[in-house]
Design a protein that fits this description.
It is a single chain. With 431 residues, the protein is α/β, with parallel strands linked by helices. It has 3 domains: 231 residues, Alpha-Beta Complex (2-enoyl-CoA Hydratase, Chain A, domain 1), CATH 3.90.226.10; 59 residues, no CATH class; 50 residues, no CATH class. It contains 17 helices and 10 strands. Strands 1, 2, 3, 4, 5, 6, 7, 8, 9 and 10 form a 10-stranded mixed sheet that branches. Strand 5, helix 5 and strand 6 form a beta-alpha-beta unit. The radius of gyration is 28 Å and the shape is elongated. The chain starts with a helix and ends in a 10-residue tail after the last helix.
Length: 431
Amino acid sequence: MSDDAARTLLSRIHLREVAIAAHYTGLATDLQMLQSSNTKQCEDAFLARRAELVQAYGMGPVEQVKPFAFSSGIAIIPVHGTLINRFGYSWGYVTGYNFIRQQVAMAGQDPDVMGIVFDMNSYGGEAAGCFECSADIKRLAGGKPTLSVIDSNCYSACYAMAAGTDKIVMTPSGGAGSIGVVAMHVSYEKMLAKAGIEVTFIFAGDHKVDGNPYEALSAEVKADIKKGIDVAYDAFVGLVANGRPMDEKEVRATQARIYRAEDAKAAGLIDAIATPQAAVQAFLVGLTGSNLQPRKKESAMTEATKPGADNKATPEELATAQSEARTAERARVAGIQGSDEAKGRSTLANHLAFNTSMSVADAKAILAAAPQETAAAAAGNPLKEAMDAGNQPNVGADTTGAAGDGKPSAAAGILAAAKAAGVRGFTQAKH
């Protein structure tokens, strides 16, 4: 560590309560960069990153000029780098609590915004201002749903931010936790003595020079500092217990450990594990009932089978390709509807199966992150009722009776039910 970096670090955290993962080694670098930063360049970089945030969630392009990243009715707020108090910007390596407040307030008041997503990637930061900012998230959101997406780190002060949102989803390789507070005292006493320098304080008030960096920390002063740490820790624990389905005993039991995805979910620190795109897809479906990626009408066709395609395939090869495409599509639909994740979520499962071209794996991730339906909602789905009553004919089957008597077949009934249910993507086969 350079002398400048060391001085920057020590001046920022000496005897200041911080909520940051102890294994993070980039704090000095972050603070040194902040000290020497060019505000104009950093602001330009932030504007460019707004488009990157939207694209990372498969939502691009940015739809409107707004003071936050925005697309498809979703505002995305970055919580990146070291988190610091009294700072109104987000420059990638640092994010200010005032910036988070400003972004949430503007998104909460914007009628175009249906929900707010927090893009979490931070090891934590200052305890000062942290817990107040977390509490402000729900207040400033104005009743709009909030979601934290952890990609890839969400520790200490960053987790305090996440605990202030309605739901937390983590990437499979992510990490969360470190619910704790720490303060550090640095003494230059021995270094100064070696250099032949002696510091003498002349003061009034017995505790005026408590914790100064020029002499060793006394046991009495250390005990006083520990009291402050305990107060901040109690506030942190209470905040998490209030925001998560955990009681204070469970939060304390984490003992500031860091958790990977599966363990974090088991401990109650997160709600689901999914890729960022799948997490936001599920979030949007919950808000609107629609998906960000509408299914292409020709999705069941290969380039070789599209009408007018420039190919030399024989009729037999075309027939084989079309049959394989239909078989693959039926397998995809069955894989989604028959998955364990679809249980209790039949309406969403049908939407993902029949109204999108989403893979089974992505659909399962979205279903796992979505709440289960009420019994009343499931019972009122005419598509489900028709599917349950019929013999599950192949999608695309003829819609007339097998005997050619002009009576509607089971397939026709299902198509009609699908239309009544508002499910798009069912079409009668052309022969």
